[in-house]
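job 3f2a | input accepted
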Amino acid sequence: MIEDFYSRAFPPVHVNGDYVLREQEIRDTEPFYNYYSDEEVAKYILASKPLNLAEACAEIHYCRNLFYYKRGIYWTLARKEDDIMIGAVGIYLNNQHHRGEICYDLDRAFWKKGIMTKAMKTIMAFAFNEMQLERLEAVTIKANTASIAILNKLNFFHEGSLRMYRYFNNKSHDVEMYALTRNDFLKQPK
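job 3f2a | predicted structure (190 res):
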């Protein structure tokens, strides 16, 4: 099942006629750094932000290698017209339990256009159908109403608040846990 997934080549996934999810590459460093450094994008991400292009490049390498080390998969979300990175969608996998935590971010210039919702739908189908996952989880902070809106639109269930769950910037943060199971996904209208 999941081992079969890792034995194949990195899978590009087409979102629609305008966007593709593809393997992250070094050429994504500058676009990634530019949008990830935006305070509006970064304020809800409980992870270190790259302080320069070298750190951004290291993050691209880390995300790319998740697949090759069998720990997950991270795609660059790019426009098909110019293949420039505008965001990312990734899944950190718990291979033993056939579940993953889905993560996503998007350049602010592309907010409120339905792009991330379409990308997430595409990856959800891929995760349940191709990767054979049983569960997808997503965590976000309560203040990130846009992320919560996407998760609700995609029929993720709010399972509750996890107190002091993520440690970042020398303090623990509460998060909201959302999840979708394979059975839930298969019952959804297509």
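job 3f2a | The first helix runs from residue 2 to 7.
job 3f2a | closed
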